[in-house]
Amino acid sequence: MSGQIPEYRCRVCGGQDATSILDLGAVPLANAFVGPDAPDADAARYPLTLVQCAACAMVQIKEILPPEELFSSYLWVSGTSATLRAYTRDFAARLAGRVDAAGGATVVEVASNDGSMLAALKEVGFDVIGVDPSDVAEGANARGLPTIRAFFGTEVAGRIVSERGRADVVVARNVIGHVAEPNDLVAGIAGVLASDGRALIETPYALRLRDDLQYDTVFHEHVCYLTIGSLANLLGRHGLAIVDLTFVHMNGGSFLAEVMHADRAERDGARSVLDLEDILEINRPRGWEGFTAQVHAQREGLRGLLDDLRAEGATVVAYGAAAKFMTMLNYCDITPELVASCGDANPRKQGLLCPGVRIPVESPERLMARDPDCVLIGAWNFRDEIVAYFRDTLGYEGEFIVPLPVARVI
Question: What is d(CA 317, CA 385) in angstroms, rounded to the nearest whole number?
Fold first, then answer.
């Protein structure tokens, strides 16, 4: 199970010794949705293997694909989720309570997407600038939210410093796990951050990946899966340290680390959690034993449930065409014969086909016109929002399937 993996080199430390955690086979890119202008967008298949570095404990996918291929045109738009919109407002308000926004404090947001967080931060008084490589950055600029369309790293950080000065705050939510060169990104954060500044780094917690069986979060765009320990190792390489930690419900369970330059850090805010991670063995291969078998069992359980519903003549649809759901659909070989359609509120996805399995993506209204008996919740991290929307807004009276950690009807 362990040892050198051919052509593997850790993205953080360069180590070549790793343990294989999960092999999901060859799958299409999670955002390679098929449209009439690109009918073969999902034709290519790429191996998808999750491993853990023996030297620095970073959990990551083995395969490296060009970031331009993954992110130049990005379909996820953060503003389409009511849960996320509410979270950005709360995040901005809490940050304004700790940092003097009225005093002209500058916030740089890494991977600012459509500018939803930038707008919330600007509203409470911060001077904001975003950085995002995808085409949605153009929309943020059009809304008066200054955004550099580029991959953030040392080069962009230097540009910001020369043009705007150093940042009082850097916000990096759900981004470190998406970059093929995390050292360049973290070095950029260190370079743009004022000597007494603070970076807020939020990322899905790999402990939840393991314990809640969130294997669908593994896809090519999401290259690293962080623990407190692996993040601390990465930050330490660039003179940064965690001074405080909290945990949030976003993305199936994330941690939010407050980070400072190590020579200005008031305290070691990660020590107690690092001790807990040592007990839970999340940073050691032994802690991942049995994970593959559990994932296989989930696939069999979900397939069995959908097969039974088809045999009964039930109409099953899905909701939430998230990238993570594409991993599950392809790994479990769920096709239109089992799930007739997938609804999504994002108009950029409507009218397209899910990569690999070719399930059509429709608006919520068209989905309901199918009179479904059961709705498989693809974006399970927004389960409560989705259930409330279907019940209260769409008037749906049928059942829902929650796929993880064990497929069940609610």
Answer: 17
Contact status, residue 69 vs residue 30, Cβ threshold 8 Å: no
The tens digit of pLDDT for each residue in 289-305 reads: 999 999 999 999 999 99
CATH 3.40.50.150 intervals, the chain: 78-288
Q: Shortest CA distance to 203 belongs to which of 242, 151, 236?
A: 242
| DSSP code string of 112-159 | -TTSHHHHHHHHTT-EEEEE--STHHHHHHHTT--EE-S--SHHHHHH
| Sign of the torsion angle spanned by Cα atoms 171, 275, 247, 287 | positive
The architecture of the domain spanning 295-409 is: 3-Layer(aba) Sandwich (3.40)
The sign of the CA dihedral 199, 200, 204, 210 is positive
- The confidence score (pLDDT) of residue 239 equals 98
Residues carrying CATH 3.40.50.720, the chain: 295-409
Contact in structure between 16 and 187 (CB atoms under 8 Å): no
- The answer to whether the beta carbons of residues 282 and 255 sit under 8 Å apart is no
Residues 311 and 50: their CA atoms lie apart, in Å, by: 35
pTM comes to 0.88
Q: Residue 103's pLDDT band (boundaries 50, 70, 90)? A: confident
CATH code: domain 78-288 is: 3.40.50.150
The beta-strand segments (E) located in 149-225 are 167-173, 193-204, 224-225
Burial class (CB in 10 A: 0-12, 13-18, 19+), 5: middle
Cα 371 to chain centroid distance, Å, stands at 32
Rounded to an integer, what distance in angstroms lies between the CA atom of residue 253 and that of residue 230?
Answer: 17
